[in-house]
Design brief:
Number of strands: 16
Low-confidence stretches: 434-445
Distance between the termini: 28 Å
Helix content: 40-55%
Strand content: 5-15%
Mean pLDDT: 88
Shape: globular
Strand order of the largest sheet: 4-3-2-1-5-6-7-8
């Protein structure tokens, strides 16, 4: 297939968290990829599980119910599934997500007949896409956004040895079945190669990006939000900004400790925390204990389109100072958005950040988990306007050249073409799935 040809792409997201109207990093990533592939005139149909129901959509707005296999409609199937689940619970057998993955596979198979390639956002134990790929005879490209093993450990999720064995076997099946794997950072790519013995030629690194049209040169509205009204009287107030969820691995506790030191030398400085999360109450208590209540701004959740002007008002943008085992292999969206808006960035010197930022060139990198080092970086920047300008300009140039969503999707598009071309050259595989025909509508249901 020539690059000028248009592809029919099935975007698979076996998740009940796929409400596209929520301003979450995951959703923003999915929307960016799907919409730009569509802008290149490819047909992209998503199969997901919004509201707990299997549906498909060609525009991420209008959803149609996906037809499941006939077996799921038999009166004997629900009692059978219930009995198996009870037996599993009683005998403490490992959870392998078989029924849910089978349902999802059926939804894909009835919705994606005749498509060229499947593109799936990976999550551990979701293997409906692998089933669908094999049965439809359509190659599967897998996008991996983090080390799920590390994330489980980070979240305190403990599994028994039989459960880990089941996880291991299921994931080996998923990765073995994929025609190609995309990792969002080079450290993650290396982890996946080592853990799953994926051939190096079968896995590529494609970084996340930023929406340049939104973040480069954003306008500041004439009427500032209430939490920024102080700028009308103090327009030169230095602001340090963090954007993200309030979770343990984002290290807001360390950020507050560092800002306490900054406030002693810059009493008019403000720390703006853009977002919300489960640690909100604890963070507010720490702010009060450090006597920073008048200097820390909680914006709460804001619309993604409002983040650029909040960053533009800031002097410094900061990335999580407490990286975890999982986060050091991820590709944080906020990093590329900070770069695109042209702000001086302070971030931890971890492998995933160091492949994007160079210390003293387009950002300042500090030792992870070190509040004192973070404070020194803030003080250095606040005392040197020219350094802030230089670092911000260099970061923006790098974002425009290498880290836009257009660049990201162009790389994904190239991989999809290669996979489809290789699949077409391989011996033909007869699909093991017969389409369900709706005789009334004379179309695949």
């Amino acid at each position: 297939m020539q690059p000028s040809s248009r592809l029919k792409i099935g975007y698979l997201w076996q998740s009940d968290q796929s409400e596209m109207d929520k301003h979450l990093a995951t959703n923003l990533h999915v929307q960016a990829v799907v919409q730009r592939l569509q802008a290149h005139e490819h047909t992209v149909r998503m199969v997901a599980i919004p509201d707990g129901k299997h549906k498909w959509s060609d525009d991420l707005k209008n959803w149609r119910t996906a037809r499941l296999g006939a077996s799921f409609e038999k009166p004997w199937f629900p009692p059978l599934e219930s009995a198996v689940r009870r037996l599993q619970s009683t005998l403490h057998l490992p959870y392998i997500n078989l029924f849910d993955s089978q349902r999802y596979a059926e939804a894909c198979m009835s919705s994606l007949i005749g498509f060229d390639v499947l593109y799936e956002r990976y999550w551990m134990m979701n293997y409906g896409g692998a089933f669908a790929s094999r049965r439809l005879g359509i190659p599967l490209v897998l996008e991996v956004n983090g080390d799920i093993y590390e994330e489980y450990a980070q979240l305190g999720i403990k599994l028994s040895p039989p459960q880990w064995l089941a996880v291991d076997q299921v994931n080996r099946f998923i990765f073995h079945n994929a025609a190609h794997v995309i990792a969002v950072s080079e450290p993650l790519r290396q982890r996946l190669i080592k853990r799953w013995r994926i051939p190096e030629a079968k896995i590529s690194t494609v970084h996340n990006g930023a929406d340049l049209s939104l973040f480069v040169a954003p306008e500041i509205p004439a009427n500032l939000p209430a939490f920024l009204r102080f700028l009308e009287d103090e327009p030169t107030t230095p602001i340090i900004t963090f954007v993200g969820s309030f979770k343990p691995w984002h290290g807001i506790d360390l950020l507050l400790e560092a800002f306490k030191q900054v406030s002693e030398q810059f009493p008019n400085a403000r720390l703006m925390l853009v977002g919300d999360g489960p640690l909100r109450t604890e963070i507010e208590m720490q702010v009060s204990a450090l006597r920073l209540s008048s200097r820390v701004i909680f914006t709460g959740r804001v619309r993604h389109q409002d983040v650029p002007f909040l960053l533009r008002l800031s002097q410094i943008a900061v990335l999580a100072p407490r990286p975890s085992g999982a986060s050091i292999s991820q590709s944080p969206l906020k990093l590329f958005e900070y770069m695109a808006v042209g702000k001086a960035i302070v971030a931890p010197a971890t492998p995933n950040v160091e492949e994007v930022l160079t210390h003293d060139v387009n950002g300042l990198l500090t030792a992870p988990n070190d509040a004192d080092a973070l404070a020194r970086a803030f003080l250095r920047l606040l005392g040197n306007e020219e350094l802030r300008r230089q670092l911000g300009s260099a970061a923006q140039r790098e974002a425009v050249a290498k880290y836009s969503w257009n660049t990201t999707v162009a790389q994904i598009e190239s991989i999809l073409y290669q996979v489809v071309q290789t699949s077409a050259a391989a011996p033909a595989v007869t699909p093991t799935y017969a389409p369900i025909i709706d005789e009334k509508k004379h179309e695949c249901a």
